[in-house]
Amino acid sequence: MLNRISNQSFDQNRKMKIVVTKEIKEGEKRVALTPDGVKSLVKAGFECCVETGAGTDSFISDEQYAKTGATLSDNLSELMSQGDVFLKVNPPTAGEINKMKEGSVVISFLYASTNADIVKALLKKNISSFSMDAVPRTTKAQRMDALSSQASLGGYKAVMMGANALGKIFPLMMTAAGTITPSKVLIFGAGVAGLQALATAKRLGAVVEVTDIRPGTKEEVESLGGRFLQVEGDDSVKVEGGYVKEVSEEYLLKQKEMINKHVSDADLIITTAAVLGRKSPVLITKEMVETMKNGSVIVDLAAESGGNCALTQVGKTINHNGVSIIGEGNLPGLLPQNASEMYSRNTTALLTYLAGNEGFKWEMDDEITKGCLITHKGQLIHEPTKNLLNL
User: Is 234 a catalytic residue?
Assistant: First the structure.
């Protein structure tokens, strides 16, 4: 029997108003809902209100939104005060939360365990929040898995950026002027981003090696034509929801020793290693960078969470002893058209699962609700976040 909590004073005589505003984070070009998403939600009985120009950076015009049933408005204060549900890409700022109607709902990436101030602001305003980064990575929730959809694009873009920064081509080329040997690509992490990077680099003709502390990823790596570099595991490696939750310093040291030679031989290194709710582990030290070839490149996908390379600077590309280190913090945002399309499908699937014409179901024992509902009725109810923030 599911534990149901009654909806928060929703008037069933009117349609639930879904609000989409322009993302205000610097450099963010994605939008949380596309015209196709609007069309689906309107058909499901929702009203969609979109801020004028919200989709411009994703190559979506206001006219496209209007044609699929959205109401456009340039009055942001009015939109924020009247919305029942806010669909966003990035966590709302404290300023945005203050403008939202009390008792409304936010669906976005929240990264709640590292955004205590945002969680507190949501609690103070009695706003219920669902975090897209906390959606369970299960078969049932596959259509809602925004982490995977965005990571896939990030892995692809990382290879493209690395290829652009390299002073050589990826594939083997035999010409009358001699033979060009293929580039060597080393990837840290065989999650969604790492596997997409592997597939992309292989399509371009590179020789690709992949290392991951999860031995179960070996088969996936080899099926895509990569060579798997493995360290013998130990009991310190804990995996949860597809992410490494915990790993010992001793294990990380063994991994570094094993991959030292591979680092120095690589033309391009892509790092994707993340630890759930914590700073990303440093896998490439300054000393390791200094063993790399002049002209080689590192693309650090973990830049925003601390970086897997000790020298990474988020949002910047630096050069250290002839090695370029790219710390772009939002690779999916560099592909806003596809990223917005995929994210919109994720948010639409989640919203229509959680709510209908009668409002939100609030099925608190449901695995998806339980997995990604962070705040509700003025309380922090997401246990992993509660444990990490001690609120």
Answer: no
The question of whether 300 is a catalytic residue gets the answer no
On whether residue 381 sits in a domain, the answer given is yes
Residue 12 lies in a domain: no
Q: Do residue 156 and residue 289 come from a single domain?
A: yes
Catalytic-labelled residue, pool 148, 255, 280, 340: 148
CB burial class (10 A; 0-12, 13-18, 19+) of residue 218? middle
Q: Which of the following is catalytic: 58, 65, 131, 145?
A: 145
- Inform me whether the pLDDT recorded for 346 exceeds 90: yes
Total number of domains constituting the chain: 2
CA distance 26 to 179: 45
Q: Clarify whether 305 is annotated catalytic.
A: no
For 98, 109, 113, 156, 340, the CA distances from 278, given in Å and listed in that order, are 28, 16, 8, 25, 27
Confidence of residue 7 (pLDDT cuts 50, 70, 90): very low
Asked whether residue 8 is domain-assigned, the answer is no
Q: Is residue 5 part of a domain?
A: no
CATH of the domain at 101: 3.40.50.720
Residue identified by tokens 């996936």 is 220
Active site residue 230: no
Element at 283 (helix H, strand E): none
61 and 87 both lie in a single domain: yes
Q: How many helices (H) and strands (E) does the chain have?
A: 13, 21
pLDDT digits (tens, 9 = 90+) for 264-302: 999 999 999 887 667 888 999 999 999 999 999 999 999
Residue 139's domain spans which residues? 17-144+336-389
Which of 73, 81, 243, 265 is flagged as catalytic?
Answer: 243
CB atoms within 10 A of CB 178: 7
Q: Which of 80, 38, 43, 45 is nearest to 63 (CA)?
A: 38
Task: Decide if 137 is catalytic.
Answer: yes
Are 279 and 113 a contacting pair, CB within 8 Å? no
One domain for residues 207 and 314: yes
Do 305 and 344 have their domain in common?
Answer: no
Pairing state of beta strands 17-20 and 47-51? parallel
